[in-house]
Design a protein that fits this description.
Oligomer: single chain
Number of strands: 17
Strand content: 15-25%
Radius of gyration: 30 Å
Order of helices and strands: HHEHEEEHEHEEHEHEHEHEHEHHHEEEEE
Structural class: alpha/beta
Largest sheet: 7 strands, mixed
Helix content: 40-55%
Length: about 425
């Protein structure tokens, strides 16, 4: 009996050892299988990059002043961008080279500050890996943010920045609007032709790139028309000032027949009201920074009958421009200003450029360069703010519009001025 038990034990151990060996052999085969599968995947990613890029989401950065001094500008930017994204999603994505790519908007608040705009651009480029950036809008933020985009070789288009420095010597930076060297003479010629005046006054923010630059371009153009010294008052203030009585007193005493002030909508209301309180009865003329949906809300009847240059006129619009206005108004409850319209055009330009690349490689640096090159080649783009063709400097050749504020508070088309 003892022998029998010992024999059975030995046999059991032999069976167990055999099972262990079989398990080890199966495990080795499985490991080889896994290693082979992983090797195939790595090879496919190396030699077939389109496998990765097919499902990659295209990220478009939006650098906007959601808060700060001009939040309505940020709101119009965001709303227009969201409308554009709705259309892209309805189409099943953005088609490039026969493939549909999902699109994501990365919307960041620059707080209407230059330093925040720089931080936002850096984050979107390095962390979010956006393909292209739309914005900032105001030149004060667009100029420094444009330097960041250009240094990182990331295409950026500012819909609303009219200061030449935004795109100057920056091949990766574009704009969707006319420039101040064009806008200044347009306004000087309009005032001269419409009113026949020879003496003008200027009131501007010396601490902000946009109004400071445009004030100087207007002064230069006006004095070419009317002679040196025909700008009889050239008064300045600093950002966030709210009392302009001292400057307006000097302007009234100067003998000026017209006042030009290239300020943002929130400041325009204060300037116009205080000018009228001091007895100013002459015309007050503005620039494209007046064109916010909130201007009339702040200014009221004081702005009736005044003129300013801008990028499009909502009242009396037709075709695709009217369709955009009606859709925006229905969705958000008010008529879009020029910022909204320019942002819409800028995003459609970006869309056209991405589609024109013909292929996305999945390499963000190469794809950014391809989009930049496609932007530079755009000709005769038919936008809701007019036709445009980009120059070598990234600036569009397009017309300006002079609008008159009606007694209903509407921005009515008065005349156009083209290069």
């Amino acid at each position: 009996m003892l022998f029998s038990h010992q024999t059975k034990g030995i046999i059991s151990l032999l069976h167990l050892n055999q099972e262990v060996n079989e398990y080890r052999e199966k495990e080795a085969v499985m490991r080889k299988g896994w290693l082979f599968a992983v090797s195939c995947l790595v090879i496919s990613l190396i030699f077939i990059p389109s496998v990765w890029s097919e499902t990659k989401t295209i990220k478009v950065g939006i650098n906007a002043p959601i808060t700060g001094d001009i939040p309505k500008v940020g709101e119009g930017t965001k709303f227009a961008a969201q409308m554009w994204l709705e259309d892209i999603k309805a189409a099943g994505g953005l088609e490039v080279g026969g493939k549909k790519y999902p699109v994501e908007l990365v919307i960041e608040d620059n707080e209407s500050k230059a330093e925040s705009a720089v931080t936002v651009n850096t984050k979107m480029i390095t962390d979010d890996e956006v393909l292209v950036i739309v914005g900032p809008q105001a030149s004060k933020q667009a100029i420094p943010a444009g330097e960041v985009a250009n240094n990182y070789k990331t295409p950026m288009i500012s819909p609303w920045s009219t200061n030449p420095d935004t795109t100057k010597d920056r091949p990766f930076v574009f704009r969707g609007c006319f420039l101040d060297p064009f806008q200044g003479p347009v306004l000087a010629n309009f005032i001269k032709g419409e009113f026949g005046y020879t003496k003008a006054a200027v009131l501007y923010d010396v601490a902000s790139d946009y109004p400071k630059g445009l004030a100087e371009f207007f002064k230069e153009a006006w004095e070419k028309l009317n002679g040196t010294g025909s700008v009889v008052a050239f008064e300045s203030f600093t950002t966030k000032d709210v009392d302009f009585s001292s400057q307006l007193t000097k302007i009234k005493q100067s003998g000026a027949q017209v006042l030009f002030t290239p300020q943002y909508y929130n400041e325009v209301a204060l300037i116009v009201k205080q000018a009228h309180e001091q007895g100013w009865t002459g015309p007050i003329v503005g620039s494209d920074s007046w064109g916010s949906a909130e201007l009339i809300e702040h200014c009221g009847d004081d702005c009736d009958g005044l003129f300013f240059s801008t990028h499009y006129a909502a009242a009396g619009a037709k075709g695709e421009t009217k369709a955009f206005i009606d859709r925006y108004n229905k969705k958000y409850g008010y008529v879009p200003d020029d910022v909204g319209a320019l942002t819409w055009d800028a995003l459609r330009i970006v869309q056209k450029a991405i589609e024109s690349t013909g292929k996305l490689t999945g390499n963000i640096e190469k794809d950014r360069k391809a989009v930049r090159d496609a932007l530079a080649q755009i000709k005769e783009f038919d936008g809701i703010t007019g036709k445009m063709t980009f120059t070598e400097d990234g600036d569009p050749i397009k017309c300006a519009v002079i609008v008159k504020i009606s007694d209903k508070g509407e921005f009515e088309f008065f005349k156009s001025a083209c290069p």
